[in-house]
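Hey,
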Amino acid sequence: MSHVLIVDDDALVRDALQAFLHACGHEPACAANGNEALERLASDDIDVVLADVMMPDVTGLDLCRYVAEHRPDVPVVMVTGHGSMDLAISAMRVGAFDLILKPLTVPTLRAALDRALHHAGIMRKLSLLRTVEASSEVGAILGESAEIKAVNALIDRVADSDASILVTGASGTGKEVAARAIHARGRRANKPFVSINCAALPDALLESELFGHARGAFTDAKEQRDGLFVLANGGTLFLDEIGDLPVGLQPKLLRALQERKVRPVGGKHEIDIDVRLISATNHDLEQDVDRKTFRSDLYFRINVVQLRLPPLHARGSDVLLLADHFLKQFAAQEGKQITGLSPAAARLLLEYHWPGNVRELQNCMHRAVAVARHEEILPIDLPESLSAASSEVALAPDYPSELLPLRDVERRYVTRVLAAVSGNKSSAARILQIDRKTLYRKLEL
């Protein structure tokens, strides 16, 4: 249930708004003036402020300025019976989230509150980012969703075991990250972590990479070379894309895991090994077993414990935690001062489906840092695919009873951009990709 603070010096208006909010399932609180509203904000849990502009003593603009400075997580929806461009710009400059005109209609009020409450939810999530990441355990997969908590819990339970683990999930979900987390939290953490992509090498070279070779084993084998099983001795060997392991190599891998010994290509003697095996795949290995492209006995050997990674779109607000994490990394690399995501950018990240999962998000944040011109990442810094996928047009109402002329929609967007850059007209013009004269002309319409 959302808590909405109604601030209006007209008792009839307060009563009507209170009844409406109750009917919509909200928990309203009332203040008869700005001073009373300040007291409420200091003591009560408020999600959104709905305030009249014209009030004695502390005006709605004064109240909005205070909220923006002291409670930036609380959006303020201003209500006025005297709409003008100057008032709209003044409201945006002091931090108003929205400005709606009297007489109020149910669709207008409902839509404004829905947008403000959605914005408030995003602001709360953004405010938790640093706290959550700072409290994350060493080797933990970053995330607060139930799915990732379950993954981290399973990692805790198996980290010290020598049981083989199969990490499954779609491409880009972070399977190697999970493998490294298992290694980092187990008793082998101070030993080598060695990885190889089974799909990246030809059959003959892959065999040599895994098991090593003796001198003279083939034309270019001018000296003996240890394989990855030997190099990972005492630690963890990670076989990525194991579903692409050639059928001819599968019996040799199975024997190595069973006997805990490897024979180098062309070698006469076996070498004892002590490795913890973690494999990963985006294949359905059970189907591959049915098709006879993957051995069933090898499948059971590598799949003692299975760790399933969820797609990013199923992880809810984890996308913001991960985005903030990547922003810090890339901002440090680029030498830029990036404080985080703007609420509008965060909304786009939350609404996008992320077919490329965490890898796509990582690339998205790298791109955002590279092109960013401000301390916050703005929607303009994100790939066009995110904006195209969003069903909501910025600042344009999405209910048919208040479809506006293009001129009015454009004017509202210009004032919001101007407010986002603290009234800096040069910055606003750059974001809008227009010159300053055009900007002034649009503000005068």
